Amino acid sequence: MEKRQHPRTAVSGLIAHITFFSEHGQPLLQREGRVMDMSLVGIKIQLDQALPKDLGDCLLRITLSQTSMLIPIRISGRIKRLAGQLELGIAVEDDADHPNYDDLIFECTKTSSNQK
């Protein structure tokens, strides 16, 4: 049974374009990946390309897009967890475009429920 305060929602077909920034705001690198699941406070992403082992703490700018979305959603976050170099857990920052992000989670939850 899920004990999280904000349960995860399985996601299908959602792509993440991620830019990693240093503490000083300098862009370090970019990656793309597939969103595996998301909640109000975080996102789990399977990356297409491995991250460097010495990446350290970074600010992330993430653009979420899907073929059915007219306008991509942009959010900020920080790395919460790395599983190897290809799976990334991201804590969503409070400055995220929350009304649109919340709507996206609602749509993903609705779609996931309809597929069961």
Tell me about this structure.
- The chain is mainly β and 116 residues long.
- The protein has one domain: Beta Barrel (Thrombin, subunit H), CATH 2.40.10.220.
- The protein is built from one helix and seven strands, in the order βββββββα.
- The two termini are 17 Å apart.
- The mean pLDDT is 82.
Q: Give the termini separation.
A: 17 Å
Rg calculated over all Cα atoms: 14 Å
List the strand order in the largest sheet: 2-3-4-7-6-5
Total strands: 7
Proportion in β-strands: 35-45%
Structural class assignment: mainly beta
Mean pLDDT value: 82
The helix/strand series, from N terminus to C terminus, equals: EEEEEEEH
CATH class: Mainly Beta
What percent of residues adopt helix (DSSP H or I)? 10-25%
Helix count, DSSP H or I runs of 4 or more residues: 1
Q: How many discrete structural domains?
A: 1
Spell out the CATH superfamily.
Answer: predicted glycosyltransferase like domains
Shape: globular
From the coordinates shown, what is the CATH architecture?
Answer: Beta Barrel
CATH third-tier fold name: Thrombin, subunit H
Ranges where pLDDT stays below 50 over 5 or more residues in a row are none
Mind describing the biggest β-sheet? 6 strands, antiparallel, barrel
Question: What's the topology here?
Answer:
Layout: E1 9-10, E2 15-21, E3 27-38, E4 42-47, E5 59-65, E6 73-83, E7 87-92, H1 98-114
Antiparallel strand pairs: 1-3, 2-3, 2-5, 3-4, 4-7, 5-6, 6-7
